[in-house]
Amino acid sequence: MTKKFFGTDGIRGRVGEEPITPDRILNLGFAAGKVLAAKDWHLMEGERPKVLIGKDTRVSGYMLESALEAGLSAAGVDVFLSGPMPTSAIAYLIRALRLQAGIVISASHNLFEDNGVKFFSAEGTKLPDEIERQIEAVIDFPVKTMPSAQLGKVQRLKDASGRYIEFCKSTFPYHLDLRGLRIVVDCAHGAAYHIAGHVFHELGADVVTIGDQPNGLNINYECGATHCSTLQDAVKLHQANLGIALDGDGDRVMMVDEKGIIYDGDQLIYIITKHRQQTGFMKGGVVGTLMTNMAIENGIKNLNIPFLRSKVGDRHVMELLRKENWFIGGESSGHIICLDKHTTGDGIISALQVLHALCDSGISLAESIQNISLYPHRLINVKVSRSSNFVEHKELQKVVKEAQSDFNGRGRVLLRASGTEPLIRVMVEGESEQKVELWAEKIAETVQKVSVQTAE
User: Fold this and answer.
1) pLDDT-based confidence at 274, cuts 50/70/90?
2) Distance from C-alpha of 94 to C-alpha of 81, rounded to nearest angstrom
């Protein structure tokens, strides 16, 4: 059954528009509560299922939190409220407190006008598709409040941030510290604003924190992992050794060196992988996505480490990691998963793994990846007819094959239909920038031409 509301990362949209409205989220909370209450949790007699709700710093989080809280309580589920916390912190706290599920109110890297809801299982992982389908099956049912004696209770979770700070620090080796490093941390005015700086400071770093003054409207605005120029300027201004940029819910990370050069998720994954191999802790292979730069794939394979690509999205990376029983994977966008450290992607913990590699080896970010030169790439979004379905069209495939033949194994072409807009994304990368530009333009023109032909 196709899911109506849930996408690859929960439910997301513009606040005030379906499905991000108070009444819909109330129904969502009630539906989730009914599904959770029906499961066999082996609870003690009279004990109710317990759910933790966290959020980022968007002003709409208050409204959606109240709606979810009311729906869950009406269904007879107890609720803990953490307040603003990174997505990965909720995943950790669910397990630490032995709760039955967790909910995060966030639209990740989007601006404040958007918001969303994503669920985590008792194991601290994204909710399985089957459970999401069960919730959708009853989301339109009327809310029928449980008898008063069976209503769920709601309470604030004490010291959620302190618990999570200690967890993050526990993923960094005890024999190392960050003394002597000046680090700028950009929290994107998001969920990690009161956490990230403390983690690095308590490990010994001289920390300058920016993006730590959320007002409900400035989350991700010209800051954080999606806008690294703010961090670049701050690193130079404060003469820091490096900078760390998170996104609004703290699950993405980008890094900047002392010269202001940006290191994306692909490069950081390579640094972590290479260090683990050198120290004997690398197990299995690495999972990237269809968008992972080919130079990173070749670099990892040159270390004699297997590499596989999943579909775009950290959920798909996670699925392939679990299938292969591997530990390291992620995306160029900064979603990095280290399954031996956490059950989900975590920006702070991923940054600590990179810092572990740098401190252990005594080298800089630039030195740690000096043998890898990212291939030039070009991404063109081509608007097409909504009814068009022509990625396999003969004329288009002919041009793609010509491009692949010209690259002769030193480049690649990726055509991908957008899941939310009438777009075909044309991505071309290769060693030769001239060839990349030539073939990207030619393939995009062919996509446009075929789109017009098939729409007539």
Assistant:
1) very high
2) 12
Q: Does the active-site annotation cover 108?
A: yes
| Neighbour-count burial of 392, counting CB atoms closer than 10 A to its CB (0-12 exposed, 13-18 middle, 19+ buried) | exposed
What is the C-alpha to C-alpha distance for residues 326 and 340, in angstroms, rounded to an integer? 9
∠ Cα 126 334 58 (to 5°):
65
Which single residue is written with the structure tokens 């909504």? 386
**Is the N-terminal amide bond of 19 cis, ω within 30° of 0?**
yes
Sheet holding 101-105, edge to edge: 11-14, 114-120, 101-105, 50-55, 78-84, 154-156
Share of the chain above pLDDT 70, in %: 98
How far CA 308 is from CA of 321, 323, 332, 350, in Å, comes to 9, 12, 14, 20
d(CA 229, CA 220) in angstroms, rounded, equals 12
Q: What is the pLDDT of residues 383-421, one digit of tens each?
A: 887 655 677 788 999 999 999 999 998 999 999 887 667
Q: Which residues are CB-contacts of 337 (< 8 A; sequence separation ≥ 6)? A: 314, 317, 318, 321, 328, 329, 330, 344, 345
Could you give the CA distance from residue 336 to residue 118 in angstroms, rounded to a whole number?
18
Q: Give yes or no for a contact between 423 and 381, defined as CB atoms under 8 angstroms apart.
A: yes
Asked if 182 and 208 count as a contact pair (C-beta separation under 8 A), the reply is yes
Please give the Cα distance from 399 to 443 (Å, whole number).
Answer: 7
**What is the distance of C-alpha 8 from the center of its chain?**
11
Q: Which of 108, 368, 388, 451 is catalytic?
A: 108
> What is the DSSP secondary-structure string of 331-342?
-TTSBEEETTT-
**CA distances, 443 to each of 398, 399, 416, 449 (Å):** 10, 7, 12, 10
Q: How far is the C-alpha of 443 from the C-alpha of 403, rounded, in Å?
A: 9
In sequence order, the 6+-apart residues with CB closer than 8 A to the CB of 38 are: none
**Cα separation of 170 and 319, whole Å?**
26
Q: What is the mean pLDDT of residues 187-199?
A: 98
Question: HSE of 188 in the Cβ direction (CA atoms, 13 Å)?
Answer: 33
The separation between the first and the last C-alpha atoms of the chain, rounded to the nearest angstrom, is 32
pTM: 0.93
How far apart CA 375 and CA 355 sit, in angstroms, is: 25
Residues linked to residue 415 through DSSP beta bridges, in sequence order: 426
Q: What distances in angstroms separate CA 84 from CA 91, 94, 244, one per listed residue?
A: 14, 15, 20
